[in-house]
Structures
1.
Amino acid sequence: MTRFANFRAFYPYYLSEHADRMCWRLHFAGSTLVLAVVVFALATGRWGWLWLAPVAGYGCAWIGHFVFERNRPATFRHPFYSLAGDWMMYLDILRGRVRL
């Protein structure tokens, strides 16, 4: 397993694992669903819905990797950096730095 000194060193690797635009789109959709579920649970007090957040987020991302990228998600090798990478990529998409 490749080791990274810090997240800054990891992030370019993370982006390289996402060459297929459909994978990026699925990541973006999954992250948006995570936010929607969390906001819904906070707004309504229906905490039982929170189990859906990781299912939606990881489900969309893993479909993108297994079906479109045909690779294993970085989550299995670098879980914390990968989670941070998901949200950094989400912000980069919103900022227009990563194009869908």
2.
Amino acid sequence: MNLRIDPSAGGAVLTLPLDAPLEEGIGLARQKAHWLISRLDALPPHIPFTDGAEVPVLGRPHRVRHLPGRRGVVRSEDGELLVSGRPEHLSRRLVDWLRQEAKRQIVPRAEAKAALIDRRVGRITVRDTRSRWGSCSANGNLSFCWRLVMTPEDVLDYVVAHEVAHLKYRSHGPRFWQTAGKLTRDMEEARAWLLQHGETLHRYG
């Protein structure tokens, strides 16, 4: 049984085992009512992808600027994200661009780091995952949350190094951490940044 706050949904999520009665889950939620209220009140406000919104890219703030009369792809230019097309498509186009930019940042890093430890990366996918920033499957496929592209570059680099290190060591033992530390810099600072600020990235979009 698990009760957690989902910043992207702006609410709480209760997960029960299949054989657990619903009443037990409701009882847990009632017991944790004060905690739930305080955590929900502390959530940062949602920031929709609209004209004028401020969105970080690699940790640097960018202002969204809608150019309805212009065609073409989204462009990053002088601290602005220039989005063409109709207003109702702005959010989707910006998400698509951020996904592509995340993959553009992640793929070459992952391949280069894997080569340093004599491993090869399988397929690399970028998704909007809520419970983890990255994962490594048993067959060497890597998956990352596209929202990493909003973090400072050292943080993104650490998450890539973390998952690449799993290509060599599946568990989080001493040899794993030693390998991950060799593949990136400022590992502890990056981990601390994610713990402190990671949840806030889900308020965008």
